[in-house]
Amino acid sequence: MARVTIRVLGSGDAFGSGGRLQTCFLVSAEPDQALIDCGATSLVAMRRCGIDPTVIDTVILSHLHGDHFGGIPFLLLEAQFVSRRERPLVIAGPPGTAKRLTEALEVLFPGSSKTEWRFPLDIAELKAGRADRFGGMTVLPLAVEHPAGAPAFALRLTCHDKVVAYSGDTEWTEALPEVSRGADLFIVECYAYQPKPKFHLDFQTLSARRSDLGAKRLLLTHMSQDMLDHADQLDIETARDGMLIELPCPVPEAAKA
Q1: Contact in structure between 192 and 205 (CB atoms under 8 Å)
Q2: Chain segment 186-231, per-residue pLDDT in tens
Q3: Which class would CATH give 3-239?
Q4: Ranges of each domain in the chain
Q5: Would you give the end-to-end CA distance of the chain in angstroms?
Q6: CB of 81 within 8 A of CB of 111?
Q7: Are 42 and 35 contacting, i.e. CB atoms less than 8 angstroms apart?
Q8: Where are the beta strands (DSSP E) in 16-130?
Q9: pTM surpassing 0.90?
Q10: Residue 203: which of 221, 183, 215, 184 has the closest Cα?
Q11: How far apart are CA 78 and CA 241, in angstroms?
């Protein structure tokens, strides 16, 4: 039976609240392996979980804040000098991704943006409302409300007839019901318990609008210490670093015969 799995590599906020690593999810749908976001601690997370970074085919970015894309310079340089990667790698993100990545490489490792990569590297820029296909995965980005110096997206990833939706970072917007509708899993950021941070979601708002989200399963992530302090009061599942979620796919009727 074909299956889709999601490994929570990082479920924390930007500030290490609760000792959690920054945002990163590995979606596996054989033969494809994709990261949704790649925070600065993502390579550490992969090592802890025993995941070989060279198996990653695609990195899909929701937005260009460091806790969501800051791990890419380390991922690239590890591939170049440690793993000596040969397989192609695609990095797909909002408009401006190529420029921001070049700047990040230069800030962190001066001169590294001029590296002649030993593996084929493709930087693809996503467009809100347009679906793009990477291997066997289709990605639909929808614009959300989160200033990051470039557009911020919620993402709807389809593979093996399963849908994994992800809010990215955002305040409440009507894009959320759209991106989550019918999803097998909706990973949704929930930074605070009470409405406080602008451009982020909070548990009270999500609870009040829960019926608007048509996903089969909700998973809260990107939680501040405030949210973690209320963990025993929550009636929605919460992510944790290292967590593995499996979405089994039904066997086609022809295969049953």
Answers
A1: no
A2: 999 999 999 877 999 999 999 999 999 999 999 999 999 999 999 8
A3: alpha beta
A4: 3-239
A5: 14
A6: no
A7: yes
A8: 24-29, 32-36, 58-60, 89-93, 121-125
A9: yes
A10: 221
A11: 22
